[in-house]
């Protein structure tokens, strides 16, 4: 095989692998973006029904999701305010402790990351519940509050994430700068504020953003500690379990848009800082024109992107898809009526075939020997046919026994071989009435009259 063939085959393989990689990476996002604008009540691309923006309104009108969103925002701000200083303190302690104690302290501080979130959630409830009982706090106290428990449970492991970010930044810090500041008469607080804290500025921003995202998306710990409340993640999980709709795709579109805007602003900031550090900003053509200089500034990029997003939102809110949906409903109704008509025609055709192939009914007195009068005769179900008249019942024979039960309780009718009812027995003759009473006439009413 020639080198050209090998290079061609390798190029096709690289192109195919790249396409598969980006399809796998961005395919679900593209599908969710498209389904957010389809009027179908189930998230799908095909069949396409109508272009609509109603699902964004349905998302905003979902009170449970909106309430969980505000709860998650409050929790995220609280987690950032607590976890970032704790992570910074842990990183500074690890950088100042002796090398012998550093591995042990590092293992202790990193353990919360290794513990499963379910265990952290349950242990948080058990621990603070015990603290509340020790202080005599009731169930309405702070130790049984879902917001407090969630804040405590999330800070437990998110502070360790922040600590790792600060440790990576401190590895590039030159401690002689702090020592020189102390030698020149600065206090430890001044050296920290003037030298170390500005150096840690990018790490602080990164740790805060990471802590906010970790708090916002956490589910395993929050689902236990939030108790009867809801965060955005737990409310979203409940909605997915009960049945999804394209409003979740609308949420994905909003998250993707916010992420893209933030990434573009960050890229503009990084490029501007690179130009300023290299000294090429004054020579760049972009900075020669005031308009292009303002448009390439991170603030200008943010304003332009936010204005474009606001214009798209306004245009989408003005779109009315009710006419399209009404036409779609009418089309579905016509299709349903056509299918029903086809079904009725098939049933009529089957009935005609059954009538043509059904055998002729026998004539004579035994035309309908059924004791039910032909009620269950299949021929009576066919349309246009009348059931055969039932034979008249024979008149009852004169009964020798006027019993209303028809000799059912006659002892003679139980005898084997009897062909008919036995003759009635004569009534027994009464015994002599000399003293018919077994009590000797003691209770005879005539004996109670007084003698004259």
UniProtKB/TrEMBL annotation:
Q: Which GO terms describe its biological process?
A: transmembrane transport
Protein localization: Cell membrane
- Any coiled-coil regions, as ranges: none
Q: Where are the transmembrane segments?
A: 12-37, 69-94, 106-130, 142-166, 195-216, 248-265, 286-313
Biased composition (Pro residues) is annotated at: 389-401, 419-435
Keyword annotations of the record:
Cell membrane, Membrane, Transmembrane, Transmembrane helix, Transport
What Pfam families would the database entry show?
A: BPD_transp_1
Cellular component, GO, one term: plasma membrane
User: The ABC transmembrane type-1 domain covers which part of the protein?
Assistant: 69-266
Quick one: where's region Disordered? 348-452
Q: Which PROSITE patterns match?
A: ABC_TM1 (PS50928)
Taxonomically, the superkingdom here is Bacteria
Return the Low complexity bias intervals. 353-388
Q: How does it sit in the membrane?
A: Multi-pass membrane protein
Per the record, the similarity remark reads:
Belongs to the binding-protein-dependent transport system permease family. CysTW subfamily.
Name this polypeptide is given: ABC transporter permease
Species this protein is from:
Ectorhizobium quercum
């Amino acid at each position: 095989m020639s080198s050209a063939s090998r290079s061609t085959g390798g190029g096709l393989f690289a192109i195919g692998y790249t396409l598969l990689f980006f399809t796998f990476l961005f395919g679900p996002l593209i599908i969710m973006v498209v389904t957010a604008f389809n009027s179908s009540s189930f998230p799908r691309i095909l069949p396409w029904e109508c272009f609509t923006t109603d699902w964004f309104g349905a998302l905003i009108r979902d009170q449970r999701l909106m309430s969980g969103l505000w709860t998650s925002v409050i929790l995220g701000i609280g987690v950032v305010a607590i976890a970032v200083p704790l992570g910074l303190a842990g990183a500074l302690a690890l950088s100042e402790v002796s090398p012998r104690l550093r591995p042990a302290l590092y293992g202790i501080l990193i353990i919360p990351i290794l513990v499963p979130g379910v265990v952290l959630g349950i242990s948080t409830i058990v621990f603070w519940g015990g603290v509340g009982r020790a202080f005599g706090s009731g169930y309405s106290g702070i130790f049984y509050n879902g917001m407090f428990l969630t804040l405590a449970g999330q800070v437990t492991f998110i502070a360790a994430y922040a600590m790792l970010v600060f440790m990576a930044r401190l590895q590039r810090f030159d401690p002689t700068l702090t020592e020189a500041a102390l030698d020149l008469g600065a206090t430890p607080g001044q050296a920290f504020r003037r030298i170390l804290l500005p150096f840690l500025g990018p790490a602080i921003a990164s740790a805060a953003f990471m802590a906010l995202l970790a708090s916002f998306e956490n589910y395993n710990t929050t689902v236990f500690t939030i108790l009867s409340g809801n965060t955005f993640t737990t409310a979203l999980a409940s909605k997915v379990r009960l049945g999804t709709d394209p409003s979740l795709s609308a949420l994905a579109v909003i998250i993707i848009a916010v992420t893209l805007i933030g990434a573009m602003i960050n890229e503009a900031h990084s490029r501007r800082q690179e130009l300023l550090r290299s000294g090429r900003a004054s020579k760049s053509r972009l900075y020669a024109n005031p308009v292009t200089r303002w448009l390439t500034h991170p603030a200008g990029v943010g304003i332009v992107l936010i204005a474009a997003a606001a214009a798209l939102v306004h245009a989408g809110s003005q779109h009315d898809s009710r006419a399209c949906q009404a036409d779609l409903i009418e089309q579905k109704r016509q299709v349903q009526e056509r299918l029903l008509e086809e079904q009725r025609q098939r049933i009529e055709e089957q009935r005609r075939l059954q009538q043509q192939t059904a055998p002729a009914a026998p004539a004579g007195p035994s035309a309908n020997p059924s004791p039910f009068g032909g009620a269950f005769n299949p021929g009576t179900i066919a349309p246009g046919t009348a059931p055969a008249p039932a034979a008249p019942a024979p008149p009852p024979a004169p009964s020798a026994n006027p019993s209303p039960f028809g000799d059912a309780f006659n002892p003679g009718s139980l005898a084997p071989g009897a062909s008919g009812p036995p003759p009635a027995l004569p009534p027994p003759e009464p015994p002599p009435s000399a003293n018919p009473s077994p009590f000797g006439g003691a209770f005879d009413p005539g004996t109670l009259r007084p003698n004259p």
